[in-house]
Amino acid sequence: MADMNSALDLISAQFEEGSAIWLVLFSALFVLTAIYFFRGLYIYNKRSMDSLNFLILCAPVLIWAFFIEGGPLLGIVNGEGTFVSLIIVCANYLIPTLLMLHIWSQVSYRPITIYVWIRWLAVPVILTVIAAVRMADTEIDLGTIGVWDGQISAVALGASIYFIIVIIKSYLLCFNVFYQMPVHMRRSTYQMLISITAIVIAHVVSAYFGLTQNVSNVLMAIALIVAMYSLFTAFFIANAANVIVTSRDFVFSSLSTLVIMISLKGNILDWNRKAKDSCLPLPNPKYKEPYEHYRKRILETCNGTVSPHDENILNVKSIDGENNFLFTWHDIGYQGRQYGYLIEIADVTNIYTKLRYIEVIAYYDNLTSLHNRNAYIERVKQIATPESMPLLIVVGDVNNLKKINDLYGHLSGDNLLLTVTRIVKENAPEDAFVARIGGDEIVMLVQKASDNMATSFIADVTDALNAITDAGFGTPSVSWGYAIMRDVTESYNDVFRTADSIMYEAKRKSRELTISGVIPQERED
User: Fold this and answer.
1) Which three-class secondary structure state does DSSP give residue 263?
2) Is the CB of residue 237 less than 8 Å from the CB of residue 249?
3) Could you give the CA distance from residue 342 to residue 230 in angstroms, rounded to a whole number?
4) How would residue 206 be classed by pLDDT, with cut points 50, 70 and 90?
5) CA dist list (Å): 412 to 400, 424, 440
6) Mean pLDDT of the region 69-77
């Protein structure tokens, strides 16, 4: 221990106030910080990086290096006055806090509001005021009262406790980057950790070894040189905007979709802020609520329905109309092990509306709103299965449509078609598929049907049409024919031709028919 004390005394002698090493060190700190300050000002004016808090941090460092007793401006500025001592103490209290706030601005997407500034700067200001009052009462040179002076006093104790809080906060901000950001965005944070650690080492060494004020000032000057260099380097590795935009929490809360985390058992564990703050017509999830219960709650509370196109699309009613939400499942896992699921709920109302419009154009007749030939062909491919047998095929042909179009115009012909299709839809079985496959041709397909169903349908439609008399087209009529496909071994086209032949005979060869209902055969290579 004696040897250690001797070594410390020797080191202290090398850093006496006014010595060459002393002047070079504090001059270097002053010049380096001044360069960084003006460089940061240039960056701030260009608005290419967020350097405002860096500029604010540079100010007390410059003041401390400028006014330090026996510093580089000795002979120009009297560094022994109580006012100067008060400025030095103020800088000592402010530097750790401003360092923390600068790091905050670089790694956190949460803004530094006026409230934050007041909350964190209140303690340094109060400590400075207490020190000033103490100076006035006791005429103690405040140049010997710093954050790292080693004295046991209320001011020093309060400053030390607050210093520890600020440093812990600074470390937590940096460590949060390691959790929130990808590996390639952490390099700038390593530089910030170097800055914090350099200042911590200077404080700890000064307090633990009971160093003189001069040696403590030298250690702090070295720490500040390292800190300012590291902070400035961090600017050009990754600026604040680039670091923040990769934050998981920031990205997660900025998603335009609702995201819900599901356990392996299907219970809701968490959801993003969009879901919590959303004004969309969806109820808020509940912690550990089964997902299926939440889905059922959406359907019940929002008058929702499952889309006929996809069970993962829910149609939800609201005061503004209908919204359509797509529920997309993603596995949450790592290295082959699954931990849970992530459900992304996207509002696809605009896309869904356009798709339905395209579907209407592609699969519905724009005059009668019946299915068109495209939909008819797709439907036959879907239901020509054993589960659909026996399959009823009813073929109808509107009589005299061409004659009415030629004599009275297409408007009268359109009215005739609209009247006939309305009666057909009103009398068709509930699960029937009805399509207009040609100009005047109508086909109805019914699964698991019978002859009685066909004859009853034809009779009801005929009676309803006979009861109509229109000035433009008179009493409408339809020639009908039907056949039943009883087994998938039969050819659909053969059964359709049978129904079509019956309908053709019903028209008593009034004109040549085009058999539009025959399904095109796939080409054999």
Assistant:
1) strand
2) no
3) 39
4) confident
5) 11, 18, 14
6) 49
Residue 36 in tokens: 């960084």
Query: In angstroms, rounded to a whole number, what is the distance separating the alpha carbons of residues 233 and 227?
Result: 10
**Among the listed residues 246, 247, 273, the one whose alpha carbon sits nearest the alpha carbon of residue 259:** 273
How far apart are the C-alpha atoms of 25 and 204, rounded to whole Å?
A: 20
DSSP string, 396-443: EEETTHHHHHHHH-HHHHHHHHHHHHHHHHHHS-TT-EEEE-SSSEEE
**Terminal-residue alpha carbon distance, the chain:** 98
Determine contact, residues 91/61, Cβ cutoff 8 Å: yes
Instruction: Note the pLDDT tens digit of each residue in 420-444.
Output: 999 999 999 989 999 999 888 999 9
Q: Is 176 helix (H, G, I), strand (E, B) or coil?
A: helix
Q: Which two tokens stand for residue 243?
A: 């670091």
How far apart CA 457 and CA 428 sit, in angstroms, is: 7
Alpha-carbon distance 385 to 387, whole Å?
5
DSSP H or E segment with residue 330: strand 321-334
Q: How far apart are CA 31 and CA 62, in angstroms?
A: 9
Q: What's the rounded Cα separation, in Å, for the pair 233 and 235?
A: 5
Summarised one tens digit per residue, pLDDT across range 268-315 is 998 886 555 555 678 888 899 999 999 999 888 888 888 877 888 888
Q: Which domains does the chain have, with CATH numbers?
A: 17-248 (1.20.1070.10), 255-355 (3.30.450), 364-506 (3.30.70.270)
Contacts of 91 (CB under 8 A, 6+ apart): 60, 61, 63, 64
pLDDT, residue 307, reads 83
In three-state secondary structure terms, 112 is coil
